[in-house]
Protein: Putative ABC transporter substrate-binding protein
Organism: Gordonia rhizosphera NBRC 16068
Amino acid sequence: MYSTTRRRTGGRTRRLLGLAAAASAAVVLAAGCSGTGGKEDGSGGGAGTDQLTIAMVTHEVPGDSFWDLVRKGAEMAAKKDNVTLRYSSDPEAPNQANLVQAAIDSKVDGIAVTLAKPDAMAPVVKAALAAGIPVSAFNSGYDNWKAMGVQQYFGQDEFIAGQAAGKRLSEEGKRHVLCVIQEQGQVALESRCAGVKESFTSGSFEILNVNSKDMPSVESTMTAKLQQDPSIDAIMTLGAPIAQTAVKSKGNAGSTAEVATFDTNAALVDLIENGDVAWAIDQQPYLQGYLAVDSLWLYLTNGNTIGGGDAVLTGPAFIDQSNIDKVADYAKNGTR
């Protein structure tokens, strides 16, 4: 459970925390954090509450548009709640843990974090909770957040989402599915493919590991695989940028395989509209970022928790040509 120390300390402690945060700002800036959100004078914004500082630390891969949506949701919640948001990220688990530690050292009021590599993140999550800093988890770590003592989680059950994808592929009569994992060992991605494998019953299934930090290599590896094995009739990718690359690889190889994916971005909306990607599973990244910040504000200002001790699911939902027009309108606004 979260410590209630911060809620009971009152205005004097908040002023002291503000001074401590200012004194250690250089540490956070060195870690690559950036701030957005509410007023700095503590006079209360649209939310009518004192200004708070919340750090969001993710395992974002540079250039991944999925995380732009997460950040936009977090920034919208911060603006509404009079919160200064310090956003930072690193795809390497030890570096992400260091960013969380920097947030602890700067005495932020709350921390929102992804748990893609839970073993690496567990010690700093424990340190944050021991320091009386509430932690919300989102996007990754569905199977681990509760054991770490985190009170609220926002995301999807990746295994169940994978099962939904596998079932749909079976219903479509696919005979050979290639599931592409862009970061080997990342628990959410591994769970997605495991779910697909478990529920795909109409043919053979295999995994292809690639490195999303080298997209030209991703394209060439997928192209070579499709040329080598023309029996592959479905490419299941686990992120929108990989799906975009899969479309290129399919063209390079002269393959007729269907491309489907997890997660969306504005470019993927166009690919679904023109039929290059058949469908996508949406976990609503904007909503995840929004809830991760807003839940901390609700807890810090009113003692509220969301979910009753269970994860708050933001997916899965299918996006295909039957509903893409509605999603496209929101994508134009940069929120889907």
